[in-house]
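INFO worker-7 received task bundle
INFO bundle size: 2
INFO processing item 0
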Amino acid sequence: MNLNPNVIWRKGDGEIPERAKPVVESAQDELLLMSLQLPLEIVDMIRSNASENTQTIHDYISAIVVGYFKTAL
């Protein structure tokens, strides 16, 4: 682990500390939403639904995709 008090975690340090996980998950969720290039109304709906279901955006979108493929088979 890094001894600098301003650095919480760096790649290669092992598992992400619990206090850093919400920040990392939030950043990953925002990157996912940006990469999908969806209209703002849809992005807001995804955020709202994920929040209501107490899920990360990643988990919410994953559930939608898995559900779609299960019904397609």
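INFO item 0 finished
INFO processing item 1
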Amino acid sequence: MKFNLAMAIVTSILVGCASAPRTAQEKSVEVDGTTLKFNGSYNADNSELTLTVNNDPIMKGKFPPYTPTQNFTANYQGFTLRSHCYFGSVLGEQGGVFGAVAGVIQSANSSSADKCELFVNEKHVDDLYF
């Protein structure tokens, strides 16, 4: 009985520690008469980034360790889509000396934002900020 209660408390604490995914503000662009609504979410617990177009999750992947960039390509309704994502928080979350040094370098280069540049048919159309 005591063991079950202890396990329930530990499980509740661990579930409560999981962070909520960060979501970008939706951006709508019109290309060749078609409206494309871009959005995305980043789950820091597993370093997974998902980008959606018109609510369809078409680009998804995880950031490798110590790598703040992620590039995606996809085809959607006849459009060639591409994104270049830079997440400064991926390096900052590493902690320790590495995280501190990464933070200083990013600040010096003004590149600490978590964002994805969006391209449709190789033309930059907008950015998502997380």
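INFO item 1 finished
INFO post-check item 1: Helices lie at 2-17, 88-92, 96-108.
INFO post-check item 1: The radius of gyration is 18 Å.
INFO worker-7 idle
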